[in-house]
Design a protein that fits this description.
It comes from Acidicapsa dinghuensis. Keywords: Membrane, Transmembrane, Transmembrane helix. This is ABC transporter permease. Pfam families: ABC2_membrane_4 (PF12730). The chain is mainly alpha-helical. It has one domain. The chain is built from eleven helices and no strands. Helix 3 runs antiparallel to helix 8, helix 5 packs antiparallel against helix 6 and helix 7 packs antiparallel against helix 8. The longest helix is centred in the middle third of the chain and has 37 residues.
Length: 249
């Protein structure tokens, strides 16, 4: 087994019964429950006559997820995974092992991205359940089909574009032991992204905290997706090299 594979295996074992793993499922569930509550309470008011009501339901989930909750979850996941070793001061033990340093840090990146992928898989599954509940409550929902292409394309592209944000937040979370530093940067980025939501799509595609929402858009999503994937990979390589060269974490 390679050094990277052993490091990933160790990180996976650390995640068992942790808050980070539970939140990977709870975060998308919260979005769907929130949207479901709106449609249960005001179903007739939010639906347009003559249209598939599930389309607006799915679009609302994708918008909430990509614009607010996915950036916040990526920020929180990076901070929680880094705190597993920060709080226990495990770095001295890890660096004393017969393994190079960069696989240790690379495993953190991979595990955090895996948590985001897990959430992105859970989101459509919860949406299916919510639509079935709405079919039981609202007669006009019976026979409607969930717009799979809209939902899966939006969630999938936003997950890929989120790699740049994940890389930045992982770097901050591993560089500083304080939980407040990466969390503060992440919240500031999310708030500024909401303020910039009316900015040109090209700018939103390049800004790490709005790139997931831009990638979910049907207009020019490839810019945000390509920038998020390539930029995230480049940042992760630079960050792993810089962190491995430090004497102490």
């Amino acid at each position: 087994m390679s050094e990277l594979a052993r490091a990933i295996s160790a990180e996976s074992l650390k995640l068992k019964r942790t808050l980070a793993l539970r939140l990977a499922v709870i975060a998308p569930l919260f979005i769907v429950v929130l949207q479901l509550g709106v449609y249960l309470a005001r179903g007739e008011a939010v639906e347009r006559a003559g249209t598939n009501p599930a389309t607006g339901f799915a679009r609302g989930i994708v918008t909430l997820w990509t614009l607010v909750f996915l950036p916040f979850w990526a920020t929180l996941a990076a901070s929680l995974c880094a705190s597993l070793d920060h709080n226990g001061n495990h770095w001295d033990h890890l660096f004393a092992l017969p393994i190079r340093r960069w696989p240790v840090f690379a495993a953190k990146w991979i595990v955090v991205f895996a948590l985001v992928v897990l959430s992105s898989i859970c989101l459509p599954l919860f949406a299916i359940t919510a639509v079935e509940i709405l079919k039981l409550v609202h007669a006009e929902w019976r026979g409607v089909a969930l717009p799979w292409r809209l939902l899966l394309n939006g969630v999938g592209r936003s997950c890929g574009a989120c790699l740049l944000l994940i890389s930045l937040q992982c770097w901050l979370s591993l560089r500083w032991r304080s939980f407040l530093v990466p969390l503060g940067v992440g919240i500031a980025g999310i708030m500024s992204g909401i303020i910039l939501i009316s900015a040109p799509l090209r700018l939103l595609s390049l800004y790490p905290w709005t790139a997931p929402a831009a990638a979910a858009s049907p207009h020019q999503p490839l810019l945000a997706l390509g920038w998020g994937l390539c930029g995230g990979l480049a940042i992760s390589l630079i960050a792993c090299w810089q962190l491995a060269a430090r004497e102490h974490i």
